[in-house]
Structure formats: C-alpha cells, structure tokens
Amino acid sequence: MSEKPCGLCLAYNEDIRLVHRNDYAFGAVPTTPICLGHIIVVPKRHVQRFHELPPNELSAYFELRDQIVDRLMELHPDMPPLVGQNNGKWSTQPHAHEQIAPSRGHFKELLYLRDFLEGGKVGNLILAENNRLVRALGDTPKETLEEMASKLRF
Ligand SMILES: [Zn+2]
C-alpha cells in the first residue's frame, strides 16, 4: 500500500463492530447504521474499485458478502437484504465497500430519494421521503454499535 491507511483499512482489525471477517474481507456495523442489520462489507486491500482486487481476493470478498446476505436472511426472513454501493462523487470513502441492509423490497424508494436530491428539493419533501426510506429499510436502531454487531456476528 503506497498511501496512508484510511478508516476502512484500519477497521479490518477493529473487533467491536465486527460481524465477520475472512483473510481478505470483513463485514461490520457502520458508524451510523440506518437500521438493525445494516452492515458494510469491505475488502481488506485498499482499492477504489472492486476490479482492482486480485481474483482470489475478489472471490473471498463475494464469498463473505454472500455469507452476510445469508445471515441477514436467517435473522430477517421477511426483510431480505438490499445490497448497494455508492460510486464516484457519491462515495463516502476512498476504499471500495458495499452497504447491506434488511429491506421491505422498496428499492424504488432509493431511486425516488435520488431524484429529490438531484432536483435540489429540500425541506419537508426530503424529510418525508427520508422517513419513507427508513420505513422501507427497517426500524431506527436503539442498540449500541457493539450490541448490534453481537446480534449479527457469526
Ligand atoms: Zn482504505
């Protein structure tokens, strides 16, 4: 690695929020989860795009991601998880990762929210849409990050 480790590089060795890890990837509760079951899945190697990973590390990443999806299906059978990633200017970290969260199947809610954001509409419209999004994905978490991770860990 040529550059200084980022927060997600360092998170690989963090145990408190850890859900599961293998030799090349890990899943953890994000610092600001939107619901119980919201997990970030991160390759150990610092890359901006997944295609930069060597094939064995990419394979290990997807194996872990599928295990996390299976774990969420087991815990929330009525809310199969939604998997997504932000790219380019929407990326929150310079380190490739994906978000997984239990969902009530309202993927279109996310797209509608995008349209409101891109349209520059603010205030009650965003608030209303944001509330719909939270309802679509799950309940607002009340547990600590550590408590959430311990419920999800396998
Ligand atoms: Zn990094």
Describe this structure in words.
- The chain is of the alpha+beta class.
- It folds into two domains: 7-103 and 139-152, HIT-like (HIT family, subunit A); 104-137, no CATH class.
- The protein has five helices and five strands; from the N terminus they run αβββαββααα.
- It has helices at residues 7-11, 55-75, 107-118, 124-137, 145-152; strands at residues 18-21, 25-28, 39-43, 81-84, 98-102.
- A five-stranded antiparallel sheet has the order 1-2-3-5-4.
- β1 (18-21) and β2 form a beta hairpin.
- α3 (107-118) runs antiparallel to α4 (124-137).
- The model is unreliable at 121-129 (pLDDT under 50).
- Bound molecules: zinc ion.
- Zinc ion (ZN) is lined by residues 5-6, 8-9, 46, 95.
Shape: globular
| The CATH homologous superfamily of the largest domain | HIT-like
How many domains?
2
Spatial order of the strands in the main sheet?
Answer: 1-2-3-5-4
Q: What is the typical, i.e. mean, pLDDT?
A: 82
Number of strands: 5
Order of helices and strands: HEEEHEEHHH
List all distinct small molecules, including ions and cofactors, that are bound in this structure.
zinc ion
What is the first-to-last residue Cα distance? 29 Å
CATH architectural arrangement of the largest domain: 2-Layer Sandwich
Give the % helix.
25-40%
Task: Identify the notable features of this structure and list them briefly.
single chain, globular, 154 residues, HIT family, subunit A, 2 domains, 5 helices, binds zinc ion, alpha+beta
Quick description:
Helices cover 39% and strands 14% of the residues. It is of the alpha+beta class and 154 residues long. Zinc ion binds at residues 5-6, 8-9, 46, 95.
